[in-house]
Amino acid sequence: MNDLNSSLEEALARVFAERERGLLARAVVVAEVFDENGERSLSVLTTPGVMEWDALGLCRYGVLSIEGPAAAYFAGGDL
């Protein structure tokens, strides 16, 4: 899996650089994938060197950054 994680890091760094978004420090990618039989699974990948607690922290922060605006939208902005 290390080769996959390294490829992920290279691809993300290139995309961020091309769009002048800054230097990639670390990343967690959550992706739904279909296998050759059409079965779905969830794949969680990190850039190399990301510890489990760092991945969890990045994911939790991401969830919170999505939940707030979503809750405000569904509450009609009355939060």
Q: What are the main properties of this structure?
A:
alpha+beta, globular, 79 residues, 2 helices
Detailed description of the structure:
It contains 2 helices and 2 strands; from the N terminus they run H-E-E-H. The protein has a two-stranded antiparallel ribbon with strand order 1-2. It has helices at residues 2-18, 52-74, and strands at 28-34, 40-46. Strand 1 (28-34) and strand 2 form a beta hairpin.
In short:
This protein is an alpha+beta fold and 79 residues long. The chain has two helices and two strands, in the order H-E-E-H. The protein has a two-stranded antiparallel ribbon.
Secondary-structure map with pairings?
Layout: H1 2-18, E1 28-34, E2 40-46, H2 52-74
Antiparallel strand pairs: 1-2
